[in-house]
Each structure stands twice: as C-alpha cells, then as structure tokens.
Specification:
By secondary structure, this protein is α/β, with parallel strands linked by helices. Helix content is about 35%, strand content about 30%. The longest helix has 16 residues. The two termini are about 35 Å apart. Bound molecules: adenosine-5'-triphosphate (ATP). It comes from Aeromicrobium tamlense.
Length: about 325
C-alpha cells in the first residue's frame, strides 16, 4: 500500500553510518507522484548515501524508507523492475558497442522502450557501432541515462546525470528528463548544477552534513532569504543616510561602503517602492540601482556555511 498524499517515496528518520561516522542523520523526505525532486548539497552532504538507500543498494541503519510503498532492500525483487537507476559510476562492459549494450539491456527488461529515438535525442545515434570503452565521459553519461530509462520506470533515480556533459548535451539530457516527467515518471536527482534544479525541479532539498537544511519549491526556498537592493548615492553622507534609510525601508540589514549602499529586505516590491518615492520626494539620484531576489546559489552558500552543531546541541 502506498503512503498518504500521493507520496511515492516516504522516508522517516533515516540514519546511515560508515563505522562511527554518521553520513545521514534522522532524515525525512517525501517525494510525490510525478514530481521532479532535486537533492542538492555540498560535497559529502550525504546525497549519494541517501540515494543508495532509496535504490535499495544499502540498508538504513535506522529509520523507515518506503518507495512505491515497499522497503527497497526487503522488497528489492518486486521493486527493482519499476525503478530506473543511473549511478555516478556505471559498471557495464566496455567491450560491447553502444548498440549491443542497449540491446543486451533491453533483452533483460520487460517491455523495453524503443531506443532509436533516445539514441538520436541524446546524440548517440552515430555512435551506435562504437565500443563503449571508446566513448568519451560525457557520451557514457548519456548512454547511462538511456539504459536507466529503458524499462519505462515509474521512479527514476539520477545521481549527477549531467556531470561532465557539455552545455549542449546537458540541455539535451534536461529535455529528455523533462519529457519523461511529462509522461508521468517521478524523478529524483542529485546535482551540483543549481541551474539544473532551477530549470527542472518541482521540489528542491538542500542537504548539509547529513540533514535537509531547507526544502520546498525553488521559489519557496529562495523566498526564505532576503532580497537585495543596491545603489550608489550622490552627495549623501554616511550616518545620516544610514538613519534615514532605516526609517524609509526598514531593512533586514544595511551596509554602506564608501558611497555604495546595500539593503537586504524582506519584501522587495514594497521596499523598492518606498525607496523610489523617498528618492523622488527629496530629489536624490540613485545610480547603478540594482534590485534582485535571492538566488538558489545564495541560499546554497548560506546553507553550506551553516553548521549542524547548534542543532545537535538542542
Ligand atoms: N564507503 C564509505 N566509507 C566511509 N565514509 C563514506 C563512505 N561513503 C561515503 N562516506 C562519507 O559519507 C559522507 C557522505 O557521502 P556521500 O557520498 O553520500 O555525499 P554526497 O553528498 O553524495 O557527496 P558528493 O557531492 O561529493 O558526491 C561523506 O563524508 C563521505 O566521506
């Protein structure tokens, strides 16, 4: 039986250890049917360990993991045909050609997808006769993606699918994954490309030191951080300007360096409106004015500079 809320993956209190090192600690995750869930995080945050547990490649040391309502380790034989898995390192035989590899994989799969279209779309059609060992790293990555999706999986796990791909191949891989999602496949991916998460993900979770530090839609996650307004002032003095801006805008923080001002604000639209009205009324000129919402990359940087130690103490 599947869990509530259309969850195809439900993880509660997952803990994974290597010896006395805890790589994943008390992690909760919910992935809903048909969504693309991006697991982000610093190197060593625990993404691959979490993915391996979801894929049934390693058992949880504590906690409960359900994929399509099943235990990925205990129910592996029943679950595996419904999953697509692309690992960081592929382990298939390099002596076969691309075509032979795809055919071999397809022969082991019930109802495999047609592959010519996938080879074409991922730029491997003209490599069909090439031995896998002779492929470049990026070409192997694209072959891995095809093999992981041959069985039309209900849930597809992609561990850094676009690592090492050139920009054009990355775009092709993104379109390929987006089309699978449009066809109803639930996708969980890890990536270090934040623009990949921004382009594809319905839900992002940023992991740090074995835990999810923040999660939600990209706009939810980005919305948790203040926006920034920057400008250069002409003829306004430091202390007076500081006082006045705090009254006008009520910023989260304010920094004035020489004549450059940076305001971090909770509500960009209303703060900007108040600032511009104030400048108009007093005839102030705001030069090189720049206003921007926080980016995923800023959130990522904040998370990676934070520490779990405080939480551990609580
Ligand atoms: N086999 C292992 N033995 C001991 N420690 C391990 C082992 N595999 C991973 N770790 C440690 O567990 C932590 C989490 O590793 P994991 O590979 O899950 O992180 P990650 O988020 O996928 O990192 P990356 O982005 O670098 O791939 C790291 O500190 C890593 O050194």
């Amino acid at each position: 039986m599947e869990t509530t809320d259309n969850a195809v993956i439900d993880v509660r209190g997952l803990t994974c250890t290597y010896g006395d090192f805890t790589a994943v600690r008390d992690l909760d995750l919910t992935v809903r049917r048909g969504e693309l869930f991006a697991l982000l995080g610093t190197n060593g945050a625990g993404k691959t360990t979490t993915m391996e547990t979801l894929e049934g490649h390693r058992a949880a040391d504590a906690g409960r993991v359900r994929v399509l309502g099943m235990d990925p380790v205990a129910d592996r034989a029943r679950l595996r045909p419904r999953l697509g898995i692309m690992l960081q390192e592929s382990g298939f035989a390099g002596d076969l050609t691309v075509r032979e590899t795809v055919d071999l994989w397809a022969s082991l799969t019930t109802n495999p997808r047609r592959t010519d279209d996938a080879l074409e779309r991922l730029g491997l059609a003209d490599r069909a006769g090439t031995r896998v060992v002779q492929l470049s790293g990026g070409q192997r990555r694209r072959l891995d993606l095809i093999l992981a999706t041959l069985n039309n999986p209900e849930v597809l796990f992609l561990d850094e699918p676009s690592a090492g791909l050139d920009p054009e191949s990355r775009e092709a891989a993104w379109r390929f994954v987006a089309d699978l999602k449009a066809g109803g496949t639930t996708v969980v991916l890890t990536t270090h490309y934040l623009e990949e998460a921004e382009a594809l993900a319905d839900h992002v979770a940023i992991m740090h030191e074995g835990r999810v530090a923040t999660e939600g839609s990209v706009s939810d996650v980005v919305g948790t951080a203040p926006a920034a307004i920057e400008f250069t002032t002409v003829g306004l003095a430091g202390a007076d300007l500081d006082r006045e801006l705090r009254t006008v805008v009520d910023p989260v923080s304010l920094r004035i360096t020489a004549d450059r001002v940076r305001l971090d604000v909770a509500d960009l639209q209303s703060s900007l409106g108040r600032l511009l009205r104030w400048a108009d009324q007093h005839g102030h000129r705001l030069e090189r004015l720049n206003a921007s919402e926080a980016s995923l990359s800023e959130i990522f940087t904040r998370v990676s500079h934070s520490s779990n130690r405080l939480e551990d103490a609580s």
